[in-house]
Amino acid sequence: MMRVWSHRPKFLHLGLFIAAYVLGCGFAQSLAIVPGTGISIWPPGGLFIATLVLAPRQSWLWWVLGGCLAELFSNFVWFHSPLPAAFLIYVGNALGAMTGAWLVTRASRASVRLETLQDVLAFVVLAAGVAPVVSATAGSATLQWFAIQSQTFAEAWPLWWIGDATGILIVAPLALVVVQNWRGEQLSTARWMEAAVLALIFLGVAALSLSGYLPFAYMIMPPLLWTAVRFEFKGAAVSLLLLALITAVFTISGDSQFAGDPESQRDRQVMLQLFLAISAFSALVVAAISRQHQLAMLTLRQNVEALRRSEQQLQQMIDAVPVRIWSATPAGGPVYFNKRYQDHFRAVLDGFDRLDKPGIAQLLQELVHPDDTAEVQRALEECFATGNGAAMRFRWREKDGVYRWAECRVEARRDEDGSIAEWYGVSLDIDDEVRAQQALRERERELSQLVNMVPSHVWRLTAEGEPTFINKRLGDFLGLDVEDYDQPGMNRLAGAILTSAHPEDAPVIAETIGHSLVTGETFSMRWRVRRADGVYRWVDSRAEPLRDESGAITQWFGVNVDIDDQMAAQQALRDREREFSHLVNMVPIPIWRLAPSGEPTFFNKRLIDFLGLDVAEYEKPGVSPLAAAIETVVHPDDAARVSHALNHSLATGENYALRYRLRRADGIYRWMEVRAEPMRDENGRILQWYGLANDIEDQLRAEEAIRESEEQLRRLVDALPTQIWAATAQGEPSYLNRRLAEYVGLTLSDLDMPDSSRLQVAIQSSVHPDDAPSVGRALVHSFGTGETFSMKYRQRRADGIYRWINGRAEPLRDADGQIVQWYGVSFDVDDEVRTQEELRRTQERLAIASQAASLAELSASIAHEVNQPLAAVVANSHACERWLTADPPNLERAQRTVERIIRDANAAADVVSRIRALFRQSVETRTGTMLASVVAEARSLIAEEATRRSIRLDVGIEDGLPPVAIDRIQIQQVLINLMRNGMEATSAVIGDRVLAMRVRRAGEVIETRISDHGSGIAFPDRIFEPFFTTKGHGMGMGLAICRSIVESHGGRLWAENNEPQGAVFVFTLPIQAKAAP
Amino acid sequence: MTGHDRIVFIVDDDERIREALGELLASHGIDAVTFGSAGDYIRADKPDIPSCLILDVELPDINGLDLQRQIAAGDHPPIVFITGHGDIPSSVRAIKHGAVDFLAKPFSDADLMAAIDAAIGEDRRKRAERADLGKLRQRYLELTPREREVLPLVVSGLLNKQAAAELGISEVTLQIHRRNVMHKMAAASLADLVRMAERLEIPVTHSRRAGGS
């Protein structure tokens, strides 16, 4: 029920339907002119069918109910049939309508638009033909059953059927048109005019025809059909409606041909109905045909339009695509070139547009590279002759005269029977591609050369591992080519391994390659390959997979590098390394190595044994390995120092050398001398530190002992009351003992001065300037020859006083006799020397005094010597006198004074006797002396005086004289006395003043002759007597003293006269000294 | 004559001479100190009493004459030279440089003693002079700066008025200063003060005439 309700049509529509139905019933009633039948055209049938056709089937119930309501109402108003009969009639009408609607919708399958002939025919047959059968049958049966108006079934049925059919034919199309085209397209003004004209014609014809003779009624056909043709369905529907109305009007008014007497009414009714049916049928069919024609025309126009558009698009496309397209006749005559082609022609060929359909040959001649023309020509000809397509590449001239590579493809289009309809061609610019290909080919060639030329062995495997390529070098090396690996019963890879690999390596290779092939990992291994001559050589083999875009392996490329020599070298290196490592561990010295950062990286076995630790065993968290190592193994007192020095070395790269205590495994610290040096690379960067530790504990102890003993020795040396020094073999002072240093106020370091040796400084600063040269000479002589140095010289004491020193030095020699060291001692002999010096000076003074032979000076000197004690004697005498004369006399002091007087008087006497002793020296002072040197000395003493007196000294001394034992001073005195006498004698000589002196050996004596050319000697014997003088002044003592001196030496002195004038003084000295008489 | 109010220094390298002279002076009741060399003498502490130096010309370290020249700058006892040689140039040189006597060895007792007496007498006089001058200097140092300015003007003979004008002070003030100067210098009279100024070698800055004109 709810379903029915939900499909309820709008009440407005339902109301309109009911109203239309009622009006239709009224219309039918008004046309029911045939008496006693009440049957006429039945417009509600058409309305009902049209409504049901348009309405959804679910709502039919509502429409049926609405129709029922309308018909029953109409029955009540007009028909006045009994209600059951009316109801049954309605049932028949409804069934008929439903049947018609159902059939029509079934036949049309879509909306019923009545636009095709098929639709119209289906409508006419099914709706107007079949549906009324149902309603006519039901209605006729009802009429007969209720005997309404006493009509029989057979009589009523045709009328009924025609009435219903006519009603359906007229009303249903109209209803459909009205409902479906309610808002149809607007008609143009021209159409409206046409419609108006047609309407007028139609009304006129209708009025004319229907009012006359029945057959004239069909005169309405032409305007009706015209309307149907021109205005199609709408026109037909409207015309039919008008026709029906006009007919009805005329019929009702009785003017129509269909109105007549009741007998003829029936026939006229039928005629009317037939007329309307035929008119409706014809109009509908014509309208449908017209409609169909219109639709066909429209479709055709649309198709033509679409075709044109698509052609235009195609043309645009052809012109837009960046290829040149042309077509030709089957014989090859050009038909079409696309725009690009034409642009190209225009750009390249002058006056292209003036050419009238240029032939292909001509174009080829003009455009194609001369080298390619013939080829292209031939290809094209062949193509056109055989009908096969062609593809060719050639160079094509472009507008700026350059040739570019193009590819031209020609294909034939064939019609259905296979004959060639047309040729199509395209030309593509492939210049870049061709050049790229050329470059690629070039590269490929180069690569191929490279692969064959590289001094490596290159090979290639397929993804499955099958060798497919080996380069020439590898081929030459192996003495075979890749095909030679094909062995029966195994794949090529296995064959290759079997053939080329060392039998020991083969399984490993197979496994490794297999692994790489499966996993795609790089293949890398070293193996021995068999050379063509059968020798196995080590190679380093590597292979990498080549992958395509998807990552799949396509090839394997591999190289073999001959590393045989390298392997041999490595083997040797390893051997050496092992040996070295052995050595490092065996040497009895702890050796270690640090990284540049200071981290210990290696301890040799000795060090590990010593420390009881290996490199990594002292590591502590949070402390650097170096610091940890130092903390662990270095004595705590030394740790800071070691750490500092080590860090300094690490920072600066300076060598590291330090002594400190290391802890032995047993916990005992031992002194070590640790040294480390960096090893650097070519750039000077430090790679490693190498260090070694020397156990110097024992050495240190020994050194300590030595130092102690040395210290003792040094103390001893310093304590000795002797000045001791040492010098190097070259004579550089290397040690001064404390006494010496204190004595001279110098230390060894004071001797270090720039620009001079220690020895020089020592001599300059400590030796008396007068002695320095001779000391220096003597030392240099000793250091040079190794002779003992021994000398007396003055040495400057720290307080600036020079004191006499007896210095001696002896060399210390090693086993080879080489001088190792000089040791020297110095004794202070100042007091002795001064005593001697004093004595010598006194002697010298006297000697010089006598040598000077100025007896006044001699006497003055003697007087001083004597006056000194005499003055004391006098003073003491006065004192004594005073002590004695004092009251009371001081006898004690007087006595003392007298004692002094006696003493001093004796001293004065001593002086006198000493003076005498001067001339009678004891033998003790005599030494073996070379007389020549004494003569030379005397000569130099007298030289100045001789020069003053303009006297030439002529001295001749015989060579090889033996030494004589003499008192040098005394003999010198004699010589000077005699020479001065000679000079004084010569002074008077005018002319050549010569004083001659000759010394020669005469038997057992040495004879010295001094001759002058003076006045000679009157009394050669007397002149030697004391106080005998020939000179104007003088005491006459000189010659007497001289004779006494010579005689005291065991010699003789005498005088002779010289020839032709002058005097000769001769004295002899015995070679063997004799005791003084 | 005996007493220890004087001393004789003997410098001689000959011990016999030292002994003998010491003995001789002792017999005359005179204290003597002997030295073997000039260096010993120079280094020795010497009592501050009238004294005399008997100096040998020939000494081992320094010649006696050279020693005389060396010590001439300071206050030293008068020197009596003794010598074994007695050459004239040496003696002349010694006397010219202020030696009291030059005796040749051997010399007589009388000569020596006379020379010693003369030398000691001279020394006494010199000492007294030195003492007076010292006192004078002391007094002079006690003067105020203004008084030291007044003193030269007064001893130059300027009138009080002139001196006051010179210093730009009133005459009364100058008179007060002058009185103070006289008092402090213990001068009995202006003449006394003038003598003192001479001894102190205070220059006379103004002549009266120059000041008066």
UniProtKB/TrEMBL annotation, chain A:
It catalyses: ATP + protein L-histidine = ADP + protein N-phospho-L-histidine. It comes from the Bacteria. Residues 310-387, 443-520, 576-653, 709-786 form the PAS domain. Residues 861-1073 form the Histidine kinase domain. It is a multi-pass membrane protein. Residues 390-442, 523-575, 656-708, 789-841 form the PAC domain. Its EC number is 2.7.13.3. The keyword Membrane applies. Keywords: Cell membrane, Kinase, Membrane, Phosphoprotein, Transferase, Transmembrane, Transmembrane helix. InterPro entries: HATPase_C_sf, HATPase_dom, His_kinase_dom, HisK_dim/P_dom, HisK_dim/P_sf, MASE1, PAC, PAS. It is found in: Cell membrane. The chain crosses the membrane at residues 38-55, 60-79, 85-108, 120-147, 159-180, 192-216, 236-258, 270-289. SUPFAM superfamilies: ATPase domain of HSP90 chaperone/DNA topoisomerase II/histidine kinase, Homodimeric domain of signal transducing histidine kinase, PYP-like sensor domain (PAS domain). NCBIfam families: sensory_box. This is histidine kinase.
TrEMBL record, chain B:
Residues 136-201 form the HTH luxR-type domain. Keywords: DNA-binding, Phosphoprotein, Transcription, Transcription regulation. The keyword Transcription applies. The keyword Repressor does not apply. The modification 4-aspartylphosphate is found at residue 56. GO terms for molecular function: DNA binding. Residues 7-120 form the Response regulatory domain. Pfam families: GerE, Response_reg. This is DNA-binding response regulator. It comes from Devosia nitrariae.
